[in-house]
Design a protein that fits this description.
By secondary structure, the chain is α+β, with helices and mostly antiparallel strands. The chain has 16 helices and ten strands. It folds into three domains: 4-117, Beta-Lactamase (2-Layer Sandwich), CATH 3.30.450.40; 122-278; 283-377, PucR C-terminal helix-turn-helix domain (Arc Repressor Mutant, subunit A). Helix 1 (4-16) runs antiparallel to helix 2 (23-35), helix 9 (239-254) packs across helix 10 and helix 14 (319-326) packs across helix 15 (330-344).
């Protein structure tokens, strides 16, 4: 027998553990059996996913925060990262130095394979749910059919729910692949709350009263993925129509900026614009055409007529408040407004023109062909 044979046998013991009913637990148990060293898998938030022996104590926060050099011990433990689709999601820990580094690294690879397998199953469920939610939002299913399809995913449309919508500046692939809850993967159960990706945004449907708590957790996760994380929360509503309206309310709340925002007042006009965007109406193109003289003038001269117009409307057309908000003199504001009238051929003080300009500026932000996320994510077009 060569010196490599014992190592090969140990590798086979670990690989065979993945065929057990609880593969990750069996893997950690097998690694413990080969060395007698306490072994654990700890997620990056410090939660102990598996520990053998079960009563072993771990300095979880210190372990997951460490970046040890090869062979270096942390809190008396050897560490190896467990990765899922190239992203570290947990740490495999073994107390002492009894386990050969190559064997520990192999075990960490196997742990990543098991998490990837479970994540693929759960992602498939979420893809199906995402399709259902898209149909519900677009009104493409009858109330009865939508309620039935939602029921297949564990949601009772007859009970009150809140909708949470989150967005972040990160690649859609990363948003879809990042495992938010390893405990969900390990339990092989559905998410504790319905979660899907709709139009490259996270959508969660949660029971009444849970929206703000879940939104804060959602924001924490999104912040770890990229900048500009923001989350909107709807009011609690019942039924399929309530779910659809809650989605638009949460999207509207995103416009309030970074962080977590709860929907407060129903802005019907903005909600209708959002719904029109979702239905595929080219509001961004129509609005850009209406604002074309101002956009072109701003582009050529480095001015901010569109911004001025938007602020003027947001301040209920009050010159003093607008000038203060823009940090300009009232005469400067007056000259800008006069120029806007000259370029567009409209009287900015007439009710019909103000409605026109509000629809144009809001529709442009909502439906900009360059960035459909615009106001829905609280950002203006670049």
């Amino acid at each position: 027998m060569t010196s490599a044979d014992p190592d090969l046998a140990d590798h086979r013991v670990l690989a065979d553990a993945l065929t057990a009913e609880r593969p990750l637990y069996a893997l950690v148990t097998a690694l413990h059996g080969l060395s007698a060293a306490p072994v654990a898998v700890i997620d990056l938030r410090g939660g102990v996913l598996v520990s053998v022996p079960a009563r072993s104590e771990w300095s979880a926060e210190e372990l997951v925060a460490a970046s040890p050099q090869s062979g270096e011990l942390v809190a008396g433990c050897m560490l190896r990262p467990v990765e899922l689709e190239g992203e570290p999601v947990a740490v495999l820990c073994a107390r002492g130095q009894d386990i050969p580094p190559a064997l520990l690294a192999f075990a960490a690879t196997l742990a990543g394979i098991e998490l990837s397998r479970r994540h693929a199953v759960l992602s498939g469920r979420r893809e199906l749910l995402g399709q259902v939610l898209e149909d519900v939002i677009a009104g493409q299913s009858s109330e009865q059919e939508a309620a039935r399809r939602l029921g297949e995913h564990g949601l009772d449309a007859g009970r009150a729910h809140e909708v949470v919508v989150g967005s972040v500046a990160c690649p859609p692939r990363r948003l879809r692949s990042y495992p938010w809850n390893l405990h969900t993967l390990l339990s092989q159960q559905h998410d504790p709350h319905l979660r899907a990706i709709v139009h490259d945004r996270v959508v969660l449907v949660v029971p009444e009263g849970a929206g703000l708590f879940v939104a804060k957790l959602c924001h924490e996760h999104l912040t770890s993925l990229g900048p500009d994380a923001r989350v909107g929360v709807s009011k609690a509503r019942v039924g399929v129509r309530g779910l659809r309206l809650g989605y638009f309310e949460a999207r509207n709340a995103l416009a309030e900026g970074h962080g977590v925002h709860v929907h407060r007042i129903q802005d019907l006009a903005t909600a209708l614009l959002i719904a029109s965007i979702e239905a595929g109406m080219p509001l961004g193109d129509l609005a850009a055409e209406a604002l074309a003289p101002l956009l072109e003038y701003d582009r050529k001269n480095g001015t901010s007529l569109v911004t001025t117009l938007r602020r003027y409307l947001a301040e209920d057309c009050a010159p003093a408040a607008t000038a203060t908000a823009l940090f300009v003199h009232r005469n400067t504001l007056r000259n800008r407004l006069k120029l806007i009238e000259e370029l567009t051929g409209r009287d900015i003080d007439s009710p019909s023109s103000r409605t026109h300009f509000w629809l144009a500026t809001t529709g442009w932000e909502l439906g900009s062909a360059a960035d459909l996320s615009s106001l829905l994510d609280g950002r203006g077009p670049e």
